[in-house]
Amino acid sequence: MVVTATQLATDSNGIIDRVVERHEKADIRRHGKIKVEMRRKAGVSKSELLAILASVRFSAREQAELTAAMKQANEVFGYAGGH
Questions:
Q1: How far apart are CA 49 and CA 43, in angstroms?
Q2: SS3 for 11?
Q3: What CA–CA distance (Å, rounded) separates 63 from 72?
Q4: Contact 22/14 with Cβ under 8 angstroms?
Q5: What are residue 46's phi and psi, to 5 degrees?
Q6: pLDDT 10s per residue in the chain (83 long)?
Q7: DSSP character at residue 78
Q8: Beta pairing partners, 70
Q9: Which one, of 25, 52, 23, 47, lies nearest residue 36 by Cα?
Q10: Helices first, then strands: H and E counts in the chain
C-alpha cells in the first residue's frame, strides 16, 4: 500500500495494524515521492527463540547438529546463545 505522510499521521494505528496483521508493506510518500518503507519486523527476540526451541523435541542427532552449528556461529559472530 502507498500512503502519504498525512495519512500516516491521521491513521497511524490502522496502517500499523495492516502492516503487522496482514503482513502488508507500506510505502510512505512525502512531497510526491516514496521516502519510507514500513514492514513487519522480521525475526524473533532471544526470549522468543528460546521459547520456540524449548517447545521442540529434538532427536539426539539434531541436538548434536544444533550444538555444532551454535559453536560455529559463536566462532564467527562471538556469541550465539551459549552458556
A1: 9
A2: coil
A3: 14
A4: no
A5: -60, -45
A6: 999 999 999 999 999 999 988 889 999 999 999 999 999 887 777 888 888 888 888 899 998 998 899 888 888 887 655 55
A7: S
A8: none
A9: 25
A10: 4, 3
Q: What contacts 29, CB < 8 A, 6 or more positions away?
A: 2, 3, 4, 5, 35
Residues 44, 52 contacting (CB under 8 angstroms):
yes
CB atoms within 10 A of CB 7: 16
Cell of 50: 528460546
- For residue 12 the three cell numbers come to 497511524
pTM higher than 0.85, yes or no? no
Whole-number pLDDT of residue 49: 82
Going by C-alpha positions, the residue among 67, 11, 74, 66 that lies closest to residue 38 is 11
Strand partners, 37: 27
Q: How far apart are CA 56 and CA 60, in angstroms?
A: 12
